[in-house]
Amino acid sequence: MLAPHSVDLVAARAHWVRRGLIAIPGTALPRGVAVADLRWRLEHSVEGGLEIREEPGPGFDLETDLLGLPEDVLESARHLAGCLALRLPDAGAACAEELLRGPIALVARHCAGGGDGGGVRAPNGRVLLATSLQIPYVLDDIYGAEAVTRDYGVSWAGSHSGPRPGRVPILTVWAPTARQVTLLLWDGVPPIGHTRAWSPRGVPARYPMNRDPDGAWSIIGEPGWRDRCYQFEVTVYVPGQGRVATVRSTDPWSVGLAIDSTHSVLVDLTDPAWTPAVWRSAVAPKLRRAVDQTIYELHVRDFSRDDPEVPEQVRGSYLAFGEGGNGRRHLRMLAEAGLNTVHLLPVFDFTSIEEDPALQEMPDPGYLAALSAREPAGEQQQQLVYAASRRGAFNWGYDPWHFMTPEGSYARPAAAAHGGQRVAQCREMIGALHATGLRVVLDQVYNHTTDSALFRSSVLDRIVPGYYHRLGPSGGVETSTCCQNLATEHLMTEKLMVDSCVLWVRHYRVDGFRFDLMGHHSRHNLERVRAALDELRPETDGVDGRAVTLYGEGWNFGEVAGNARFFQAVQGQLDGTGIGTFNDRLRDAVRGGSVQDDDPRDEGGFATGGADPLHTDQLQVGLAGGLSDIAFRSAVDGRPVTGHSVPYGGSPTGYATEPDEVVNYVDAHDNETLWDTLVLKLAPDTPMAARIRRNTLALATVTLSQGISFWHAGAELLRSKSLDRNSYASGDWFNHLDYTQRDNGFARGLPPKPDNGRRWSAMVPLLSDPTLRPSPADIGLASGCALDLLRLRRDLPLLRLGRAEQILSKVTFPCSGTSGGRRDVVVMLIDDASDQQIDPDHSGVLVVLNASTDSVRQEVPGLAGQSWTLSDVQQEGVDPVTRDTRWDRAAGTVTVPGLTAAVLVRYR
Q: What's the pLDDT at 165?
């Protein structure tokens, strides 16, 4: 007799957590039945087609462990606290490996006599519950300790030279639940000089792979396999489909791919053919400390796509970084002024772009330009862009496919997307940036994938179904990241994260990483990455991994929020690691409101016309590196406060123990650009000169702060995305970046409707107003002012103290909370007159941020009788207004023009 509807093997509500231990949450237990009246059994089927009947099937009876789950389980799976613990007999635990290769179910049958005391009435043996099991934790328990010590993907043995040159490939894939793994190997490589897209054809050769006890399958190849295409054919039980399937997949640890990621390619990353000269010879600038970073966030395609001086055939590509266009000249100017780091949006292989340019779709930019000239607030532009977005050439790229291979759509020509050629071109880009005097940080996404199960770009689930992703209470993949969440708390998912970071440093010589949605990872994950990088040495690896910097988005949300599953890598929980988090506190204090606001016009900030003294306090904390212990008098009421006691919603504004834990910024690729924020928040009749000054003032709050400084590319050029708040798929048109400084991107039509439509009515009059479009002269002035900010940070080491101890002893806000203090003026004093001197030339730096539209004469307590002068950079800078800053020695007052960031120095 079949079981009733309580049987649901599509759902996986139970967890197999250790070889001999199963957990089931109380919420999944049958209601109205005492636990003592349930008989538990783990049932299985060898060939699939598992059916649950009232009569027990093949399997093992389980015993309830009244002590519950042991501490070692709860340390790695906090969300299982309170689960019922069930023990397998030794015989069942001993054959766990075999059971995991087929369908399994946890079954609860009623075993009490005479009913159940008024609850569910069921005769003895009646099935009350049957559910599948989540298996990641038991796979870690059985295989993880050994599996994480292996090298995966393709490794090479032998020499490139000598009497018998030839490198032998060794291929390894971890597939512990697979019944068979076969290597499929195709003949042929792209012909020399071939320019069009190339893919292998014909029937592949088949090579059975060998299974080892740690769940890995491997095979030793031949030197002639080099640069050939391959896939794995895996025969495995797929829980979501309830059947054994034979599937083909690329290699999750791929280091080379065919165009559009159809096949993995046997690329040897040490092959001299893929090591361009500029990459071999150029050396990245060295930093003394993480706070010395001045970061510029840039998209590969944005950099050159609209640059008329870059050859058309390489625009939007890796190779464009080596060309002498407007973009490269601008980067060189930024580097000479003090910028030292370029943060590249994702360059790993991602799913959202067709890699063959011949198959990409995009609207005619000439037609769009003519349309915008007639209708600067028109709807048709976004309609055309959105219609082409599915096969367009632009996407931010936060949809990983293969984590260790460069994205192919940035290679030129199309044939270069194959194998080692895209490797070489990515390296050429990195070398060109190093040669320009810039470090390279890569944007990494380990919190999700685009697909799971057996869908097109699901690599991980094809190899080990149900392991790599984070599963919810019913066994479905969690999607709080808006995609298929990865579970880096699982050992091999963490290994994928660690291995790929090490590979990008060792084999591409990148200088840092930014982690997307880092709060979806554990602190332990980031510490493992840090430890692995720290082991890299120049004499053995060609790089010093200790110099690699790490930072990310420390947001706290989703199923992991509040340390629900592990101790997260979020703001305030990375103390002592040297890993930075983006500081939304300073961002919102400067911009006003929140980037999540339905209407950004609701609240102004320090640089956008607001007058909230809480913003002033929050800004001061950010200027002091976001330290929780920084102390000053509140601009709100004059009472003593610390960074920790200044509120930010329901959290403290100051959360850092060291300044390298904070990345200060006012805009990034997400949300509206700084310029668009100013357009939305300021009165429409605000003069253009005032808008430019506010743009510079906002950038000053970041660049003159004690934390890490971060700019979005084009912020210094008044970059607009035509008010688009989420331009990830808004095409080339709305992501315009013009290094000729002629067009800032404003008034290119209404931004795409899906993310912006509800605010179109407010946008139409703004986009239609020609006075809101800056001229080339306006853009040039803004750029010059921004360069002066970089020079200030470069030339004044007191703006980069680097240690909390020094900040707490040297940094004060002498005017805050005093009778003479103002909510629209921030004065930060960095006093280096003590014995522990930092700056050999200056005994102090005075930063004055005047957000008032009027000139302000501000008394600075304690400085009367001292000599302060405007910094050399600003005395010689491009802004004549700032040069009107004056210091009155006798009175101890500073006079600063309206909407001005002035930096004064005291010489020794």
A: 67
Largest CA distance in the chain: 99
pLDDT tens readout for residues 812-830: 999 999 999 999 999 999 9
Query: Residue 80 in contact with residue 52, Cβ under 8 Å?
Result: no
- Of residues 161 and 578, more confidently modeled: 578
84 close to 276: Cβ distance less than 8 angstroms = no
pLDDT at 4 over 60: no
Indicate the burial class of 164 (C-beta count within 10 angstroms; 0-12, 13-18, 19 or more).
exposed
Q: Is 769 a catalytic residue?
A: no
In this predicted structure, the answer to whether residue 83 has a pLDDT above a threshold of 50 is yes
Query: pLDDT tier at 195 (50, 70, 90 boundaries)?
Result: confident
pLDDT in tens, 61-71: 999 999 999 99
Q: Where are the beta strands (DSSP E) in 51-204?
A: 59-65, 84-87, 104-110, 127-131, 133-134, 153-159, 166-174, 178-185
Half-sphere exposure in the Cβ direction for 366 (13 Å, CA): 0
DSSP state letters, 672-707: S-HHHHHHHHS-TT--HHHHHHHHHHHHHHHHTSSS
pTM attached to this predicted model: 0.96
CA dist., res. 81 & res. 85, Å (int): 10
Cβ-contact 721, 735 below 8 angstroms: yes
Cα-Cα-Cα-Cα dihedral sign, residues 582, 583, 589, 593 = positive
Residue 662 — φ and ψ, nearest 5°? -130, 130
Question: Which entry of 516, 617, 716, 859 is annotated as an active-site residue?
Answer: 516
Strands 708-712 and 811-812: what pairing? unpaired
Q: Is there a contact between 878 and 845 (Cβ–Cβ < 8 Å)?
A: no
Taking only the tens place, the pLDDT of each residue in 859-869 is: 999 999 999 99
Q: Which pLDDT band, with edges at 50, 70 and 90, does 7 fall under?
A: confident
Helix (H, G, I), strand (E, B) or coil at 249: strand
pLDDT in tens, 448-465: 999 999 998 999 999 999
Residue 121, pLDDT > 80, answer no
Enumerate the β-bridge partners of residue 580.
551
Which H or E element spans position 440?
strand 439-444
Residue with tokens 């970073």: 293
- What angle separates helix 420-435 from helix 491-508, to the nearest 10 degrees? 60
Bridge partners of 298, per DSSP, are: 344
Question: Mean of the pLDDT values across residues 308-323?
Answer: 97
Whether the CB-CB separation of 344 and 298 falls below 8 Å is answered with: yes
Provide the pLDDT confidence category of residue 3 given band limits of 50, 70 and 90.
very low
pLDDT at site 190 = 78
Nearest by Cα to 289 from 2, 661, 839, 543: 661
Model confidence pLDDT, tens digit, residues 340-369:
999 999 999 999 999 999 999 999 999 999
Q: Residues 553, 617, 732, 832: which is the catalytic one?
A: 553
DSSP string, 38-67: EEEEEEE-SSS----BSS--SEEEEEEETT
Q: What is the C-alpha separation between 463 and 449, in angstroms, rounded? A: 14
Sheet containing 84-87: which strands, arranged edge to edge? 7-8, 127-131, 104-110, 38-44, 59-65, 84-87, 21-24, 14-18, 133-134
Would the pLDDT of 119 be above 70? no
- Is residue 354 annotated as part of the catalytic site, yes or no? no
Number of Cβ within 10 Å of residue 773's Cβ equals: 18
**Mean pLDDT of the 226-244 span:** 94
Which helix (H) or strand (E) segment holds residue 633: the answer is: strand 631-633
Nearest to 632 by CA among 826, 397, 893, 409: 826
* Single-letter amino acid, residue 608: T
3-state secondary structure of 805: helix
Distance (Å) of CA 839 to CA 289, 799, 907: 16, 10, 10
